[in-house]
Amino acid sequence: MRLGYTIFDTALGRCGIAWSDAGITGVQLPEAREIETRRHLFRQFPEAREQRPCANTELAIEGIVATLRGRDVDFSDVVLDLEGVTPFNQRVYDCVRGIPRGETRSAEDIADELHVPEALHEIAQALTNNAFVLIVPCHRVRDIGGGLDKPSPNSGIISKRRLLSLEGARPHAGLTLFDALLAADRPRAS
């Protein structure tokens, strides 16, 4: 299967995107320097070659550019290459893709929606391994303690809080790990 990639400009810096004949394989948000964005993309997709994007990739790029300008974007027509993504992770990604712009959910909310309340660790792993940042908006899942505060390796220098602010989410939506640990240590009302 042929893999391609390109680097493109956004309001927040140069992003990268990789694709196969089956769909988008990964998105890399801007690093501090373009060479780092390229390096990160190449580490994930060493067989990809820089080339002109296909129509599906152009659609994804237009959506990413608009999202990073604060616009509301519907990525539902963007096809993802889910080869190698476990069925469970696909279910998590489908659930996360359904979270409306400017809203957040907790990992527990995702677990409840998927009817797997015991799978918080697996949900955290799925979100950490999300190669489709923005298209699968894992930034809309609030951070909590217990290892769920790990960002996607593809989020570059853009924080979850920044992405949520671009969407108009409330400031509390980007709960930090420190805040979550403090909340976990507080006694709960009975």
CATH topology name of the largest domain, in short, is: Arc Repressor Mutant, subunit A
Total helices: the number is 7
Order of helices and strands: EEEHEHHHHHH
Q: What structural category characterises the helix and strand content?
A: alpha+beta
Q: What does the main sheet amount to?
A: 4 strands, mixed
What oligomeric state do the depicted chains represent? single chain
Number-wise, the strands total 4
CATH structural architecture of the largest domain: Orthogonal Bundle
CATH domain class of the largest domain:
Mainly Alpha
From the alpha-carbon coordinates, what is the Rg to the nearest angstrom?
A: 17 Å
Give the full name of the CATH homologous superfamily of the largest domain.
Winged helix-like DNA-binding domain superfamily/Winged helix DNA-binding domain
Quote the average pLDDT.
84
The strand order across the widest sheet is 3-2-1-4
Keywords: DNA damage
InterPro entries: MethylDNA_cys_MeTrfase_DNA-bd, MethylDNA_cys_MeTrfase_DNAb, MGMT_N_sf, WH-like_DNA-bd_sf
Domain Methylated-DNA-[protein]-cysteine S-methyltransferase DNA binding: 87-169
Organism: Bradyrhizobium denitrificans
Structure description:
The chain has 190 residues and is of the alpha+beta class. The protein folds into two domains: 3-67, Double Stranded RNA Binding Domain (2-Layer Sandwich); 87-185, Arc Repressor Mutant, subunit A (Orthogonal Bundle). The protein is 35% helix and 13% strand. It has seven helices and four strands; from the N terminus they run E-E-E-H-E-H-H-H-H-H-H. It has a four-stranded mixed beta sheet, with helices on both faces. Helix 3 (87-97) crosses helix 5 (120-128). The longest helix has 13 residues, at 55-67. It is globular, with a radius of gyration of 17 Å. The termini are far apart. Residues 145-150 and 171-190 have low confidence and may be disordered.
